[in-house]
Design brief:
single chain; elongated; 4 helices; mainly alpha; transcription regulation; TF_MADSbox; SRF-like; transcription; 2 domains; RNA polymerase II cis-regulatory region sequence-specific DNA binding
């Protein structure tokens, strides 16, 4: 049995819409969606997009990211221009960014080494006190640099234990028959 209404059925977009008013309405309705799809493609995948549409009245409407001119100029010149106009980085700026990256990597490596040393000191303090767990380490044996990290680890442990206790103490589900 056929549907009584058209609803959300797929329409054939290859044939020309005969009624001029319907054609204009369809153009007006679909154009913003087409431009939105082009903008989404550009944003999601980092590609340059250009969409140029011509209305029946001869009006030219265009959307481009970064701009229609930049995209068309690049294709006209056989791709010899850079992909994005705003991507022209100054070599000094590039060198500065590389320097910042190396500094950040050095800081991360130093922090990792510092945390390793702190971990070793905590293990040593636990071993000297002949205790079973790292949380039983003698706080007096730790230095000023280790105490904040030790406190943070103890707080994380307390939260983990609290979560486990809450799970165990929670009443059983009400789906069991009485």
């Amino acid at each position: 049995m056929a549907k009584k209404t058209a609803g959300r059925q797929r329409i054939d977009t290859t044939k020309l819409i005969e009624d001029r008013a319907h054609r204009q309405m369809t153009f007006s309705k679909r154009r913003p969606t087409l431009f939105a799809y082009a903008a989404d493609l550009s944003a999601c995948f980092g590609i340059d997009t250009a969409v140029v549409v011509f209305s029946e009245s001869g009006t030219t409407l265009a959307f481009g990211s970064p701009s229609v001119d930049a995209v068309l100029r690049r294709h006209k010149d056989d791709g010899k221009e850079p992909l994005r106009g705003d991507a022209d980085l100054d070599l000094g700026d590039l060198a500065a960014r590389r320097r910042e990256l190396k500094e950040a990597e050095a800081l991360a490596a130093a922090e990792k080494a510092r945390m390793k040393v702190i971990g070793e000191k905590v293990k040593l303090a636990v071993a000297e006190a002949e205790r079973a767990g790292w949380w039983e380490a003698d706080a007096g044996a730790l230095g000023e640099a280790e105490l904040p990290e030790f406190e943070r680890a103890l707080r994380k442990l307390r939260e983990a234990v609290r979560c486990l206790v809450d799970k165990k103490a929670a009443p059983p589900a009400a789906d069991a028959p009485a």
